[in-house]
Design brief:
single chain; four-stranded antiparallel sheet; alpha+beta; Alpha-Beta Plaits; 34% strand; 36% helix; 3 helices
Length: 111
């Protein structure tokens, strides 16, 4: 489990209307991530219980190169540009996996 590259991002939306628009933008982006990014192992989006304006993203990539390929995609660039209008705050923590358990991913050996 020592390989890989991950991050956790906490987004705080401006208000409920912004949260709904942000969620629509996220859904459009995640659809393309699923279809086009084999190096993106996990891209999970969560609403925070009791905090309806917050979203937590957990992202795990095969390696730093897979993350960089993700960031270079036109749909990710669109997401990064358009999200700002909906957000009051963004906090990012980059992660280096040490140990753990995850479901096997088809086409990935021992990552």
């Amino acid at each position: 489990m020592a390989e890989g590259f991950g991050l956790v991002v906490r987004f705080t939306c401006k208000d409920q209307a912004s949260a709904e628009a942000f969620d629509r933008l996220v859904a459009q982006t995640v659809e393309k991530i699923r279809a086009h990014e084999p190096g993106t192992l996990i891209y999970a989006v969560h609403e925070v219980e009791g905090q309806p304006l917050q979203r937590i993203f957990y992202e795990l990539y095969r390696d730093r190169a897979a993350f960089e390929a993700h960031e270079a995609q036109p749909y990710v660039k669109r997401f990064l540009a358009e999200r700002e209008q909906y957000l009051a705050d963004v906090a990012v923590d980059f992660l280096t996996p040490i140990t753990g358990k995850r479901a096997p991913v088809e086409g990935c050996d021992g990552v």
